[in-house]
């Protein structure tokens, strides 16, 4: 495969609103030891990209300064020490950054085959949400069959994935969303109960059911003490973001008396080894769910790479349901 010297990309010359995303020409990245170069067909858009664009989520050392945490395409070149992949293989991959571009490099162990039954477009939407949901819900949160699971933001990229994986694991799934249409979409994905948080109180609903065994939360703020109230005895709360702020007053006596666990994580700064472990878990546990039709990415909309600003504006309107993709 003959590779060009330059590629089309979208970069962030100055932090700001969606208009801060500007088309640009950039040099092709070079795969180092243990890395592969992927010619991307599609890239997924995620909230953390918007945080980076706004100047609030810096790429980790060594990562591309371009936004974009996931994508799909074909392996275009291989760095030293890579044995699993060959040039031309179709893959989807978690990226350390750099997905808003024609070519991106990533650790070879953070790439996965395109799951059976999916195309490149759908596969591009999997890595960031699947790595995040599986590592927090299953590995950190320990969700088990028969447990009551609550995920906030059910219509988000994360939420639509968490609902389906939790259901496939045999949990009873509760979710919150901000409109009747979003709640309907969550029920369509298999949620047992979708709570329109503008009309109903998730704490009362969960308490009436015996409390949540596990809550996956991205909202934070006033939800933190409310989540604690909604948890069952020995319940776990896993925090993956703070859309409404990280600082609250909390009565820790409740945590102690009901033996609760509060934890959380962010994916991007974790080690290559940790991400490789998550990738292996996904291939073992989640890829078979996709092959048997239990998990399908829900795609809200698609934009050409050069319209990344429009994609971010749509995401920040919160009108979307599911994932937004960029076509390279
Ligand atoms: N920890 C990690 O490693 C990790 C990795 C990936 C993503 N995340 C986080 O997970 C969250 C979801 O990511 P995503 O890409 O799936 O996002 P997304 O699709 O844009 O969804 C965010 C959803 O959150 C809901 N929401 C609730 N309160 C909100 C508020 N104050 N402002 C904006 N939206 C609010 C909105 O739905 P309603 O209309 O129902 O309110 C919105 O659709 C983000 O906060 C992201 O930063 C964390």
Mean pLDDT: 97
The CATH topology annotation of the largest domain reads as Quinone Oxidoreductase, Chain A, domain 1
Low-confidence stretches: none
Structural Rg: 20 Å
How many runs of DSSP E, i.e. beta strands? Answer: 15
Question: What gross morphology would you assign?
Answer: globular
The proportion of residues in beta strands is 25-35%
The CATH homologous superfamily of the largest domain corresponds to Medium-chain alcohol dehydrogenases, catalytic domain
- Per CATH, which architecture of the largest domain? Alpha-Beta Complex
Coarse structural class:
alpha/beta
- Order of secondary-structure elements: EEEHEEEEHHEHEHEHEHEHEHEHE
Q: What this model shows, in words?
A:
With 328 residues, this protein is an alpha/beta fold. The protein folds into two domains: 6-125 and 299-327, Medium-chain alcohol dehydrogenases, catalytic domain (Quinone Oxidoreductase, Chain A, domain 1, Alpha-Beta Complex), CATH 3.90.180; 130-264, 3-Layer(aba) Sandwich (Rossmann fold), CATH 3.40.50. It is 30% helix and 27% strand. It has helices at residues 47-53, 120-123, 127-140, 157-168, 180-188, 202-208, 223-230, 252-257, 272-291, 308-317, and strands at residues 6-11, 22-27, 35-45, 70-78, 90-94, 103-107, 111-113, 148-151, 172-177, 193-196, 212-217, 231-239, 261-264, 299-304, 323-327. Strands 3, 4, 5, 6, 7, 14 and 15 form a seven-stranded mixed sheet that branches. It has a six-stranded parallel sheet with strand order 10-9-8-11-12-13, with helices on both faces. A two-stranded antiparallel sheet has the order 1-2. Strand 11 (212-217), helix 7 (223-230) and strand 12 (231-239) form a beta-alpha-beta unit. Helix 3 crosses helix 4, helix 3 (127-140) crosses helix 9 and helix 6 (202-208) packs parallel to helix 7. It is globular and about 60 Å long. The two termini are 18 Å apart. The model has no long low-confidence stretch (mean pLDDT 97). The chain binds NADP nicotinamide-adenine-dinucleotide phosphate. Residues 46-48, 128, 132, 153, 155-158, 177-178, 182, 218-219, 240-241, 243-244, 265-267, 315, 318 line the site of NADP nicotinamide-adenine-dinucleotide phosphate.
């Amino acid at each position: 495969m003959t590779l060009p010297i330059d590629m089309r990309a979208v970069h962030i010359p100055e932090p700001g609103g969606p208009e801060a995303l500007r088309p640009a020409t950039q040099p092709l990245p070079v795969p180092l030891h243990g890395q592969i170069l992927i010619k991307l067909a599609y890239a997924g858009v995620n909230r953390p990209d918007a945080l980076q664009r706004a100047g609030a989520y810096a790429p980790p050392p060594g990562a591309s300064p371009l936004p974009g945490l996931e994508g799909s395409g074909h392996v275009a070149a291989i760095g030293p020490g890579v044995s699993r992949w060959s040039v031309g293989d179709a893959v989807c991959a978690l990226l350390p950054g750099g997905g808003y571009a024609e070519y991106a490099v990533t650790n070879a162990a953070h790439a996965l085959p395109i799951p059976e039954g999916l195309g490149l477009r759908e596969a591009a939407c999997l890595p960031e949400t699947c790595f995040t949901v599986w590592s927090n819900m299953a590995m950190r949160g320990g969700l088990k069959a028969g447990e009551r699971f609550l995920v906030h933001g059910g219509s988000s990229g994360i939420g639509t994935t968490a609902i389906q994986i939790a259901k496939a694991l045999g949990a009873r799934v509760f979710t919150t969303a901000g409109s009747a249409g979003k709640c309907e979409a969550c029920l369509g994905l298999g949620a047992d109960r979708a709570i329109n948080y503008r009309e109903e109180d998730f704490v009362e609903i969960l308490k009436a059911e015996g409390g949540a065994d596990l809550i996956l939360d991205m909202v934070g703020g006033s939800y933190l003490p409310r989540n604690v109230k909604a948890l069952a005895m020995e319940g776990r709360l896993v925090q993956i973001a703070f859309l409404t702020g990280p600082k609250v007053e909390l009565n820790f006596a409740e945590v102690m008396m009901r033996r609760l666990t509060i934890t959380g994580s962010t994916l991007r700064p974790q080690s290559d080894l940790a991400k490789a472990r998550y990738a292996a878990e996904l291939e073992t546990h989640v890829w078979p769910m996709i092959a048997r039709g239990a998990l399908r990415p829900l795609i809200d909309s698609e934009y050409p790479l050069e319209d990344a600003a429009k994609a971010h504006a749509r995401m920040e309107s919160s009108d979307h349901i599911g994932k937004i993709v960029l076509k390279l």
